[in-house]
Amino acid sequence: MKLDATEHRLKNGMAITIRSLESEDASLAVAYMRTMYASSPFLARETEEWNITIEEEAAWLQKAEADDKRLLLGAFCDGQLVGLCDFSPVSTMKRMVHRSQCGLSVAPDFQHKGIGQLLIYTLLERAKQAGYEQMELEVVSSNSKAVNLYNKFNFTKCGTIERGMKYKDGTYADLDIMMCRLT
Question: Quick one: which H or E segment has residue 31?
């Protein structure tokens, strides 16, 4: 699915463009995710697990754009990729095609400025247009800022996966399962 560029001005005056990522954005996306995995304990991968090549990312982006049930959005500031979000089907089984799953990240230097809100709002609107009836996600329980953001958009906690993530040092993090009804 493709979303044409939309321009937004944040409360602090920063100009943000939100649009679908295209295959030409592959190098930006690979670098962005490498930075995010290195800087955030709230994402599922360790840094060394992110070994996607630019060519592989370009092919994946092209495939995602052609899929009318999947959307990958980027937030750009002065040409720099500063946030990503996506949705995709939970399953292709007929009894589950009404459900979508999503992910969201914002670069550390751009957090707490309203970019996450812009991304999640846009994502939810497009998921409705794609025919989804609910959006689901998992979030590290201790990531209170993300949980608060999702609560603002009417996500509710459905449960917790205790010790859902295990870190290199042997410690664990619980994962909250959250859901937002779109209809």
Answer: helix 26-39
- Average pLDDT in the 41-63 region? 93
Domains and CATH numbers, the chain: 6-135 (3.40.630.30)
Pairing of strands 99-106, 134-140: parallel
CA distances, 31 to each of 14, 19, 112 (Å): 22, 18, 21
Average confidence (pLDDT) over 65-89: 96
Which of 126, 115, 120 has the alpha carbon at shortest distance from 103? 120
Nearest-angstrom CA–CA distance, 54 and 62: 12
Report the pLDDT value the prediction gives residue 146, as an integer from 0 to 100.
Answer: 97
Q: How far apart are CA 1 and CA 12, in angstroms?
A: 31
pLDDT at 72: 96
- Span 63-69, mean pLDDT? 92
Between CA 70 and CA 87 the distance in angstroms is 6
Q: What is the CA radius of gyration of the chain?
A: 16
Q: What is the pLDDT of residues 151-179, one digit of tens each?
A: 999 999 999 999 999 999 999 999 999 99
Alpha helices in 53-171 (DSSP H): 54-66, 115-129, 144-152
Per-residue tokens: 145:
């800022």
